[in-house]
Amino acid sequence: MSGGRLDGSPLGQCQIGSRMTTESALDSRGYRDAIGRFATGVTVITWDDGEVTRGMTANAIASISLDPMLLMICIDKKVSAHPQLMGARAFAVNILAHDQFELSKTFASHGVEGMAGVPYERGQTGSPLIEGALAWIDCEIAERLEGGDHTIFLGKVIAVSIERPEATPLLFWAGRYRSLGEYA
Ligand SMILES: Cc1cc2nc3c(=O)[nH]c(=O)nc-3n(C[C@H](O)[C@H](O)[C@H](O)COP(=O)(O)O)c2cc1C
């Protein structure tokens, strides 16, 4: 089996059809390519640390617990958002709809200023809730956990809303944005 993206471009160091282990050629790029095969939604994490009101695109999020209601976000220690979230008390997870692809790119870019002119309201915690998001989850930061080159922020869920029940999500898979397909 030969390696390549669906569009025919090569996959870098990812070994398709052969195993990479820590004893052989496994490196962080190979791991990233493999875990990137796990399809996710796309969110913009938003916060207000008292000095800045900002957002950052993130897909390393997961629900942790229903009772109590907890979710986690994983933030790279190298990004400009990291020190701000270390000082924040809360964040919101804005789950993006399929038509918010440009917004995802904006909040994934370096040097984005504040909320980049995107309309929003403030949630109960003061975190921005982005207009047009499919749904939002407003959280207080309950814990910050060590996660290698990332910090895991555990959020206690304070409020939620499904803003666009009929909208389909923006997806991310194998390094590219995707949209939902359905079985017939
Ligand atoms: C689809 C997608 C998902 C991302 N998920 C995360 C994530 O979960 N955690 C993270 O730290 N960075 C994530 N990023 C990268 C950040 O959005 C990006 O590094 C950040 O906006 C860079 O900001 P800076 O240059 O101001 O530090 C993701 C980027 C994209 C495009």
Structural descriptors:
mainly beta; 3 helices; three-stranded antiparallel beta sheet; Pnp Oxidase, Chain A; disordered N terminus
Task: Give a structural overview.
The protein is mostly beta strands. The protein folds into 2 domains: 1-35, no CATH class; 40-179, Roll (Pnp Oxidase, Chain A). 12% of the residues lie in helices and 39% in strands. The chain has 3 helices and 12 strands. A 7-stranded antiparallel beta sheet has the order 3-2-6-9-10-5-4. The two termini are 28 Å apart. Residues 42, 56-60, 74-76, 79-80, 108, 110-111, 172 line the site of flavin mononucleotide.
What's the structural blueprint in terms of helices and strands?
Blueprint: H1 28-35, E1 40-41, E2 43-48, E3 53-58, E4 61-65, E5 70-76, H2 81-87, E6 90-95, H3 101-107, E7 120-122, E8 128-130, E9 135-147, E10 150-162, E11 170-173, E12 176-179
This protein binds flavin mononucleotide.
The site of flavin mononucleotide has 15 residues, from strand 3 and strand 5.
